[in-house]
Amino acid sequence: MQGSLLFLLLGVLSAVNAVIFKDCGSTAKNLNIKIGGCPDAVSVCRFPSGQNASIEATFTPRSSFQNATIKLAASVGVIDIDFPMKFPEACSHWGLKCPGKLGLPQTLRGEVSVESSYPKIKIEVTLQLFDEKGETLICKSFPAEIK
C-alpha cells in the first residue's frame, strides 16, 4: 500500500513540474509537442546559447491544406520578437507531407538555432503553424530560458 502511494505521489509531483504548453488557437487534433532540451519533468525549457533546439509536433489536421508555414516568436513582457527563420516552409524543410489531408496524421520536425548573440533571459516561446490561407493549424506557447 505504501509503495502504491509513493508511486502515485511521484507521478503527481512530476506532472506538477512538467512544462505547460498553453494553447493559443490550435485547430489540429491529437497534438503532441516535444522540444529538445526540455524533458518532461522540468517547468521551464532551457536552451543553451550557440546550439540548436529541436522541435517535433505530431498532429491530425481538421481540414486539408496545400502548404504550411512555421513561425516562432519570443515574448519578453509585452514585447513579441519573431525568431528569424531561414526556412519557414513546413512542407519542404520541416517534414510535413503536402498537400495535407483531413484526418491523416502529420509530423513537423526540425531545428532552430539559438544564436550566441541572443540575450540570456527567460522568455515565453510561441510555436505557430499556418496553412496557405493563414488559418492556424498549431499554436502553442511555453516558458523557456536561454542560458
Automatic annotation (TrEMBL):
GO biological process assignments: sterol transport
Keyword match Oxidoreductase: no
Organism domain of life: Eukaryota
Gene Ontology MF annotations: sterol binding
Localization (cell): Secreted
Cleavable signal peptide: 1-18
Keyword terms of this UniProt record: Secreted, Signal
KW Protein transport (keyword) present: no
One Pfam family linked to the record: E1_DerP2_DerF2
InterPro entries registered for this protein in UniProt: Ig_E-set (IPR014756), ML_dom (IPR003172), NPC2-like (IPR039670)
Segments forming domain MD-2-related lipid-recognition: 21-144
Single GO cellular component term: extracellular region
Family stated for the protein in its record: Belongs to the NPC2 family.
PANTHER family tied to this protein: NIEMANN PICK TYPE C2 PROTEIN NPC2-RELATED (PTHR11306), NPC INTRACELLULAR CHOLESTEROL TRANSPORTER 2 (PTHR11306:SF68)
Protein name: Phosphatidylglycerol/phosphatidylinositol transfer protein
Natural source organism: Metarhizium anisopliae BRIP 53293
Lineage start: Eukaryota, Fungi, Dikarya, Ascomycota, Pezizomycotina
